[in-house]
Structures are given as structure tokens and as C-alpha cells.
Design goal:
The complex is a heterodimer of chains A (about 280) and B (about 220).
Chain A: H1 2-13, E1 21-32, E2 35-46, E3 50-54, H2 61-68, E4 76-81, E5 84-85, E6 88-91, E7 94-97, H3 100-107, E8 110-113, H4 125-137, H5 141-154, H6 170-182, E9 188-192, H7 200-216, E10 220-224, H8 228-234, E11 237-242, E12 245-250, H9 252-257, H10 262-273
Parallel strand pairs in A: 3-10, 3-11, 8-9, 9-10
Antiparallel strand pairs in A: 1-2, 1-4, 4-5, 6-7, 11-12
Helix pairs in contact in A: 4-5, 4-6, 5-6, 6-7
Chain B: H1 5-44, H2 49-64, H3 67-77, H4 87-112, H5 116-124, H6 129-159, H7 171-182, H8 186-214
Helix pairs in contact in B: 1-2, 1-4, 1-7, 1-8, 2-4, 3-4, 4-6, 5-6, 6-8, 7-8
The chains are: A alpha/beta (about 280), B mainly alpha (about 220).
The complex binds adenosine-5'-triphosphate (ATP) and magnesium ion.
Adenosine-5'-triphosphate (ATP) binds near residues 37, 58, 60 and 61 of chain A.
């Protein structure tokens, strides 16, 4: 039910932009001190695309998502979201670094789900979900709660609205976190290894929710994961990262059954050996 | 040395008068300390290095000097530069400032104990800085601080007799003036001790309760 609202909001408001990439990353660089983590990265994401970012540990996947969520500053290059620069803005005709007001404005397009959930532990499940819409979008409490209940229904937690996060299992926490992010109706959702902190038997319930989300919405989704089987099923396009660059990209079919690069093959072989399904 | 019940009864009202001032000074001092402590804590977290350093130095300075000296300074030295304060106001500011530095440390610990992921979740849900503080960080940071803050409140209460040095007519000062005019010390001083003890015991019970209610389990 709720997902149709996303469709409407997504397509009506910005029909003119539908063909333009929703995310455009150009020559992006990021260093932590002397360590360069992202080095001249460029790629584009189209509206509605489901993208899986895979690659060895330390290749910069999380950093990319964090830069998109403005949790990290960039060291160079450019990111555009919905046709507007993320870290730049124009003032008196000149382009200057973005200020907090601009970042705030831009963050409305983007939501994120974290590996460790990061629910607000002092708030009940429903308050976790209604807090931001009420504070940042001026949604009335009654409307926010109605929407939160629909979202909880969708993630299969309709009976948990009054629970505190500490009373939930990891899988339930993560589904609440997904609902919390969805409540803001972002056009872009970022998922950073959202199942890797979960006990194995709880992984499926979260993946199930995400599969439905991918199938039923036209939200743009970027997914960092070590679950290759899920990436294959979920993604329209897979980017394989190595040392802060895209080493290879293609459809899941191409990447998983017929990778062109040796490094991709090595990575996939290792990850299968480590017990992940492909 | 004999105890004169009649005399004790006679001086009780004036001591209670003093106790009222003691309590007022404690409460106002605590309010000043709570607010100024927050200011210190925030300044020390400032991304501006100069601001953070200056605040850090100020906190160290205030902590490194005795409260009595600070009280004298505020009440007897500041008038030389034209700042003339009533005794109670000077006392409240002095105690408040002093205990603010301790409160700041408690705040800092409490704030730093909130997981980094909470800041990030607040940002990802697009809360403003102000909303992040009021709805996410402080509600988590404050409860564990309450026992420590209450402890300092009790400590401050027991230090209020220092205010007698700057002519505040709190309980100790009233007892001293009674003693000085009657040459009897045993009743006034005993009663002061008893009143402090009663309030401290009640406070300690309250503190225990706060610790059970809010204290961090270790
Ligand atoms: N705040 C930071 N300070 C310093 N170095 C950092 C910081 N964050 C990330 N790094 C470094 O940047 C590199 C890329 O990290 P990132 O977390 O983006 O990798 P990743 O691809 O997500 O890896 P993983 O699969 O293990 O999650 C790593 O070498 C990491 O140590
Ligand atoms: Mg990562």
C-alpha cells in the first residue's frame, strides 16, 4: 500500500529528470590522513536502479555510502544527487562548498540503513519511525503514526509498535530501521551490510523485506553486501570494487557467472570458500 | 559542659531561618552549575580549537583553586573593578561556577558514552543539530549522569558553610552569631550538625534511589 505512494511521489514530481542519472559521481576522491581510500571514482546511477556494491574488505564500499549520506566529507571530485551537486552549491553565480543548510536540503533525497541498526534505544519502535517525519517534514503525529503502522505491517512487525528496541531481535531491529528510513520517503536508499551483524537464522527475514521493497518500489537502491546470492537476485547492476575503484561492473549474470577480470574471479572464489552462497 | 534544652529551643527558629538560606543557596547554586556546566561542556567540544582550549584552561583553573578563595575574590575583589554583588548572589555564583566545572566533566562523560551510530542515525534521518541534541543525544546522555550530578549536589550542600565567610546569613553563620553573642557553642553547633545530617541522610536515600533508577549497570 505504502509503496504506491513512493511510486507516485517519485515519478510525478520529477518526470522531467527521469532519464537523467539520479546519482552522478565524478572523479571522487577520499583520503583519511595519508591513506587514500577512494581514488578518482566515477559512476552514475539511474532512477529506480538497484545497485549492488561488492568487493574485498577495505575497498571503500562503506565510505562511498557514507559520503552519499553526508556522514563523511569528500576530499575531491563531485557528487550530484537528483541533478544537484551534493557538496557544492552556487552562491552569487560562483560554486562554493555546501553549507549545513544545503546538506540538510539534499539529505531529504537519501536514506540509509546501517549495519548495526542504530535505532534510538530510548524510543519505542513507533516513535523511532515517527520522530524524523514529525520533526523534519512537519507531519502531524496522527498521520506519522498511521504511516508508521503501515510500514511496520510491511516489514512484518505490526505487533511490535510499542516495544522498545532492546526487546527486539537483531532481525526485528533491522526491519524497524528499514521502516524508519522509509518513513521519510527518500528517493535513494543506501544499505550497508544490513545483515552482517545478524545471527544467520535472522538474515532471511531481513532479506525478504528488502526483496519485496526492491520488487514493489521504484526507489533507487544502493546495496553493499557480502551476500552474493542476495546481490544476484536483488541487483540490476553489480559494481565490483577494488582499492577504491570500480574494477568491473555488469549485470549479476555477467559478474557472477562470467567475470572478465581476474581480481573479480579471485574475490568470488574466496568468498565462496568463506561459505557465502553465490 | 551541659546541654540546655531551653536555649536550644530558643535558637532553633533562627537556625531554621539560616537553613532556609542554605537550601536556597544550594538550589540556586545547583541551577547555575547545571547550566554553566553545560556551557563549559559544549565549549570544550567546540570544533574551534581556541574556544575548546580556552574553556579547558578555565575549567582547570577553577578546579585548581579553592572555593573559599573564589568566594573571597567574587565578593571582596570584584567590587574594586565596579562589580558589586549582594552576598547571596556572590555565593551562588561562586559555588555555581565551581561546581559547574565538575558538572561539565559529568556531562562530557555522559555525552561521549552515547554511541557514534546515534549521531549518524540522526543525521541519516535528517534531524538538525538542535533536534539531534534534544531528541537523540541528551535523552540518552542525561539519565546515567543523574546519580553523579546528585552526588555533587550533596557535596555542594555540605560546603555552603563556606558562604559564611562572605557574610551570607546561612545556617552556619547564624549559629556563629548566636554563639558569639551568648558564648554558648555547644547547642548551636550541635544543632547545625544535626540539621545537616538529617538533610544529608534524606538526600543519600534519594541518591540511592536515583542510582537504582538511572545508574548505569556495570
Ligand atoms: N574514519 C576513518 N579513519 C581512517 N580510516 C578509515 C576510516 N573509515 C574507513 N577507513 C579506511 O578506509 C578504507 C575503506 O574502508 P571502508 O569501510 O569503506 O571499506 P569497505 O569496503 O566497506 O570494507 P568492509 O567490507 O570491511 O566493510 C579502509 O582501509 C578503512 O580502514
Ligand atoms: Mg563496509
Amino acid at each position: 500500500m505504502i509503496v504506491h505512494q513512493f511510486n507516485a511521489a517519485g515519478s510525478k514530481a520529477r518526470q522531467d529528470l527521469d532519464d537523467a542519472p539520479i546519482i552522478r559521481i565524478h572523479d571522487l576522491r577520499k583520503s583519511f590522513g595519508s591513506l587514500t581510500v577512494i581514488d578518482g571514482l566515477s559512476f552514475e546511477v539511474h532512477r529506480g536502479e538497484k545497485l549492488a556494491l561488492i568487493g574485498p574488505s577495505g575497498s571503500g564500499k562503506t565510505t562511498i555510502l557514507r559520503m552519499l549520506m553526508t556522514l563523511e566529507t569528500i576530499s575531491g571530485g563531485r557528487i550530484e544527487v537528483c541533478g544537484e551537486p551534493l557538496y557544492h552549491m552556487s552562491r552569487n553565480g560562483a560554486e562554493v562548498p555546501a553549507d549545513e543548510a544545503h546538506l540538510h536540503e539534499m539529505r531529504r533525497h537519501i536514506g540509509m540503513v546501517f549495519q548495526h541498526f542504530n535505532l534510538f534505544p530510548h524510543k519505542s519502535v513507533i516513535d523511532n519511525i515517527t520522530l524524523a517525519p514529525m520533526l523534519t517534514q512537519g507531519v502531524a503525529r496522527a498521520d506519522a503514526e498511521r504511516q508508521a503502522r503501515e510500514l511496520l505491517e510491511m516489514v512484518g512487525l505490526a505487533d511490535k509498535e510499542a516495544s522498545m528496541p532492546s526487546q527486539l531481535s537483531g532481525g526485528q531491529k533491522q526491519r524497524v530501521a528499514i521502516a524508519r528510513a522509509l518513513a521519510l520517503k527518500p528517493e535513494i536508499m543506501l544499505f550497508d551490510e544490513v545483515t552482517s551483524a545478524l545471527d544467520p537464522e535472522l538474515v532471511e527475514e531481513v532479506l525478504e523485506v528488502m526483496k519485496r521493497l526492491a520488487a514493489e518500489t521504484d526507489m533507487t537502491m544502493l546495496l553493499v553486501t557480502h551476500e552474493m546470492g542476495f546481490a544476484r537476485e536483488f541487483a540490476d547492476r553489480v559494481l565490483f570494487f577494488d582499492r577504491g575503484r570500480i574494477c568491473e561492473q555488469g549485470t549479476p549474470e555477467q559478474i557472477f557467472t562470467n567475470p572478465a577480470q581476474d581480481r573479480t574471479r579471485t574475490f568470488l572464489r574466496k568468498i565462496i570458500a568463506a561459505g557465502h552462497r553465490v | 559542659m551541659d546541654w540546655d534544652w531551653q536555649f536550644a529551643r530558643e535558637i532553633t527558629p533562627i537556625l531554621l531561618q539560616g537553613l532556609k538560606v542554605t537550601l536556597i543557596a544550594t538550589i540556586l547554586g545547583a541551577a547555575v552549575a547545571a547550566v554553566l556546566g553545560l556551557v563549559f561542556a559544549l565549549l570544550r567540544r567546540s570544533s574551534n580549537r581556541v574556544v575548546a582550549r580556552t574553556a579547558g584552561f578555565l575549567v582547570q583553573f577553577i578546579r585548581g583553586t579553592p572555593l573559599l578563595v573564589q568566594l573571597y575574590f567574587i565578593f571582596y575583589v570584584l567590587p574594586d573593578i565596579g562589580i558589586r554583588l549582594p552576598a547571596l548572589a556572590a555565593g551562588v555564583i561562586g559555588m555555581g561556577l565551581h561546581y559547574a566545572t565538575y558538572a561539565a566533566e559529568v556531562y562530557r562523560g555522559g555525552i561521549e558514552a552515547v554511541a557514534r551510530g546515534q549521531w549518524e542515525a540522526a543525521r541519516a534521518t535528517n534531524l538538525t543539530m538542535r533536534q539531534t541534541w534534544t531528541h537523540v543525544i541528551l535523552p540518552q546522555a542525561l539519565p546515567p549522569m543523574i546519580p553523579a550530578l546528585a552526588n555533587y549536589l550533596l557535596a555542594m550542600f555540605k560546603e555552603t558553610p563556606l558562604l559564611s565567610a562572605i557574610t551570607v546569613l546561612e545556617m552556619m553563620n547564624q549559629a556563629k552569631s548566636v554563639a558569639n553573642s551568648t558564648y554558648r557553642y555547644v547547642e548551636p553547633m550541635t544543632l547545625v550538625g544535626v540539621f545537616f545530617l538529617i538533610i544529608s541522610l534524606i538526600s543519600v536515600a534519594g541518591l540511592r534511589w536515583l542510582e537504582r533508577r538511572y545508574g548505569r549497570r556495570t
